[in-house]
Amino acid sequence: MARKTKLRRIESVSVPHHHVIERIMERLPVRSLLSFKAVSKQWKSTIESRFFQERQSKHSQQYGDPDVLMVSSTSLRTLVFGSLPSSSVKMPWGNKTYLVCQSSVDGLVCLYDSHKPGFVVNPITGWYRPLPLSRLQERMILKDGYIELGHLNFKPGFGKDEFTGTRKPVWLYNSIDIGLENATTTCEVFDFSTNSWRYVTPSAPCRILGGFPTPVFVDGSLHWFTECEETEVLSFDLHSETFKVISKAPFACDASHWEILLCNLNNRLCASQLKLSDQVIWSFNSLNKTWDKLWSICIVPTWRSFGFPTWYALSPLAIFVEEKKKKKLLFYDPAHNHTLVLHDPETKSYDVAFSDESIGYPVCYFPSLISI
Predict the structure, then answer these.
(1) Can you give the pTM of this predicted structure?
(2) Helix-strand-coil split of the chain, %, nearest 5
(3) Which Pfam families does the UniProt record give (predicted)?
(4) Per-residue pLDDT band at 264 (split at 50, 70, 90)
(5) Which helix (H) or strand (E) holds 87?
(6) What is the SS3 assignment for 336?
């Protein structure tokens, strides 16, 4: 009897409680967690629970570096820095060409095409969900595309209501450019609960820049440049679904729309401009509504070494923090999409992070188990 009691005490000390195991599991790579579902029914139940998946995703974003998803006409490929070469992601739509929204949300990315239904994809688990055509896409198909409509290429955004956790793809476009005269702009939001697009009214009060600048998601809102006498930044709150202009752009109003863009760096709204031989990057201070110059990067070495930039602004993707808290900027040239480059602002050096015949359209994401 004493022996059995002693064994029970040993077991109670040596076997950790399941909530302790959960805390450890939150810190593990997603691929490992997928394989651990076979360990036991309890582990499988934990890994598939929404509560665990949300915590794992939050931990990954707080303490890890993002991976890069490269979307091309032939494949989806993931790149993990400091690890193995890029790996392909198998998806069921074959070799159809898709573009990708600039912002990822909790490990999910949104693929789209002007004439085809889109997808929300988890590239690490292989989960995906098709999106029906928006009203804008239906009009483009009926009107035979952009040439007949005569407007710039508007792109959707992808973001999340930070209060409810609801993910939302969004189309915003200038109404008159597609033959609508009911308002200045038209906004469509996709509702996953009804699997349909719906209009948001009132829509944005000012025209937006189409073409190269794509909407970017930061801190619960999507952001666009406006097409006004003075270029401004328009924000769409995904919780209240309301628009407001939050700031003037930090550069002259005569900047070409090919030379400017918005991006998310370390969860801060940033603006970037190609100006002669420099790439200037500003960070938006949401408290006092001002722009702080983050970097001014001489791009002559990138032209000599990599043949870019051409006529587009270089597109910053992420800031990686290496040993001794050293920061490096990852970027690429959208018009010369062969190379991902790491720039060290301290040493002014440039290194090839990845190079191929085509890197497609890259987007950074934090691997997660989440689906919708």
Answers:
(1) 0.89
(2) 20, 35, 40
(3) F-box, FBA_1
(4) very high
(5) strand 87-89
(6) coil
